């Protein structure tokens, strides 16, 4: 409990005492006179220690407190740190350093808040102690009025005065410590301001560093971009060089392509003739074999279907009759069980009502006898009560047995309902089987009609196959003739073109040699003129020589001869005339290359037309294959219909198995119901005998 509240004219003083062990203690005292305090400074602890301290008995007007207040007052927190040490810490932290100073300031603020909370709690405890002191004064007066109570009251007064003085000293020490903490918080304010200024400087330096790093990253990005642009330019250069090489190699590839095309035409014509002959023989043999197989399958399937249908129909009729008889028996048995169960239930209810009536009458007789018995017959009454308790336990057992019997009866009814439900399901399945049988008969009739349609379609397919064979034979012969004629034309055209190309190649080689000699002569003339001509003329001559070299190289690599070209003799004129003549010859060679490209395109068109004729002959053979595929498709449909019929028969067998399972389940339900009824009857008889005995 908190110490008493301060009286008017009283104040609290605090002293810091250093003991022999070096520890500092804060002692708070209550002073009656109001002592003026000086402003807080660095010497506050010494001033506080020099203040006069009143004696501990200065609060003699206060009443003694109970013994429980001692523990609560002594458990108050002492000063966490002596005032001189805190003052030294505040002086050392006056200079702003870093985050530890702000952390220490925050700790001091938290400690100050806790001390404020403690002071508030102490004020509340003072009020409670004042009330308690008033009560104790009244108690002391009462004790003093009693004989021998004065000495006891004085002893209690002295003890509680000591306790109250100790509590007041602690309150005073806490108040003093709060003042010291306030002064330290004021000193730490300047340190926090300096710390904030340093933090602002640090943030400015960090911002400048971020700007510098951003500038460096921009420069690095620009460097990477320039490197990527250089790499792209180099890649473009390489791609242009590769395209130039590809263009120079394209002319040489045209001759190879022509030779390969001629070889492919020859091979394709031979392969087509061989494939047509083999396909014709294979189709004829396959068609004959499939016709025989189809006839055999048709005859066997008709016989098997008719016989199996008759046997299955007879079996289904017999099963239907047996299932109808079983259903009728099940219904009769269910009706008998329902009537027997109803009779047993009525009998059990009557027996239960009679037993309850007898029990009620016995209880009434017992109560009447208990009222009539005198006081001397108490042992007999206790014996009767024991018998009544035993009777109550028996009644409880009877009730439990009755609930068990009711539950078993409900289970039996549920089993009966389940059996009836299964019987209904079996009846529904039987009806479904009948409808499925009718649908199977309709589908069988439909399959017969489809078989007739298939036979008709097969006859038509045979006729179409014969026509297709005739057409295929005529088409293959015509295609063979066309292929031979096209091959001969292609060979003649190819031989003529090869001879012409050889002649043009020889002419071009001679022209190239002549051009080389003329280029050498031009080089000599230009070297002679370079001594006397200006720098501009020499540069023009060098450009003309380079152009002549490129034209000669293009002519040699292109390998494109001209049928009517003749060597052009140069007159040994100036560099300008030689350059114009070379450009004219290059234009002629380009025209010859275009002519050769047109000839190659014409050859490709001829090859495409021959390939189309070959495809037409192959398509004629494929028509016969399609007819064969249609026949096989019809056979697959027939097999599918047969498999569906067999699956329907298997389904009927599964239905029969399900009916047998339902019969077995119904028999099990009958047995379990019979056992339950017997057990209930036995339990009812036992209960009746127990009731009669009681």
Automatic annotation (TrEMBL):
Q: Where is this region: Disordered?
A: 34-119, 256-310, 445-496, 522-591
List where this protein forms a coiled coil. 345-372
The alphabetized UniProt keywords are: Coiled coil
Compositionally biased region (Low complexity): 37-102, 527-554
Q: Name one Pfam family in it.
A: TMF_TATA_bd
Ranges of Basic and acidic residues compositional bias? 256-274, 281-310, 445-470
Q: Which PANTHER family match?
A: GOLGIN CANDIDATE 5 (PTHR47347:SF2)
> Polar residues bias located where?
556-565
* Signal peptide interval: none
Designated name of the protein: TATA element modulatory factor 1 TATA binding domain-containing protein
- Which residues are in the TATA element modulatory factor 1 TATA binding domain? 580-680
